[in-house]
């Protein structure tokens, strides 16, 4: 499988192809919101962006950014080759429940220890996610949790034919 041709980044943009592998983690003071059932279930200006080659950023919000009752632990886990074992949450708000829409790393590997106490959300499983007022577009494919905004250009892994990138 051939590597796709990265799109050129314009002024104020980043290319997902300039992100490193293994992923980097960077603090962000952007206003990040998660909406479900007509309610804001999480809001923060203290998120972490995980940046990995060919992926839009995944935003991790401090657990305290979620309103009480918005995160319900559920059974099951998965393993990230970089960060360790993830555990899942249903996200609840406004009378709706988004199954397994959130995840976290209760005991991340030491290189990603900063992610402890933070929760990521799949933007395609909730009503909407926003970064500084811009509505996020979910990363294609349903497996990855990237948040696509106008700030970042791809192409992005996740769609058909991208598994081997």
From TrEMBL:
> Region (Disordered): which ranges?
1-22
Q: Which domain of life is it from?
A: Bacteria
- Tell me the Pfam families matching this sequence: NTP_transf_9 (PF04248)
**Chain ranges of the DUF427 domain:** 32-123
- PANTHER family given for it? DUF427 DOMAIN-CONTAINING PROTEIN (PTHR43058:SF1), SLR0655 PROTEIN (PTHR43058)
Its recorded name reads Uncharacterized protein (DUF427 family)
Q: Which organism is it from?
A: Humibacillus xanthopallidus
């Amino acid at each position: 499988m051939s590597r796709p041709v990265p799109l050129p980044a314009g002024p104020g943009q980043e290319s997902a192809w300039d992100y490193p592998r293994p992923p980097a983690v960077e603090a962000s003071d952007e206003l990040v919101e998660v909406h479900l059932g007509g309610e804001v279930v999480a809001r923060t200006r203290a998120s972490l962006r995980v940046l990995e080659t060919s992926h839009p950023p995944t935003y991790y919000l401090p657990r305290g950014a979620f309103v009480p009752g918005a995160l319900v632990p559920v059974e099951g886990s998965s393993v990230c080759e970089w960060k360790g074992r993830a555990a899942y949450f249903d996200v609840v708000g406004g009378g709706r429940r988004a199954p397994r829409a959130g995840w976290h790393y209760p005991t991340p590997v030491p290189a990603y220890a900063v992610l402890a106490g933070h929760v990521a959300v799949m933007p395609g499983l909730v009503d909407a996610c926003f970064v500084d007022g811009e509505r996020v577009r979910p990363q294609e494919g349903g497996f990855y949790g990237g948040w696509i905004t106008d700030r970042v250009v791809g192409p992005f892994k996740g769609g058909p034919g991208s598994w081997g990138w």
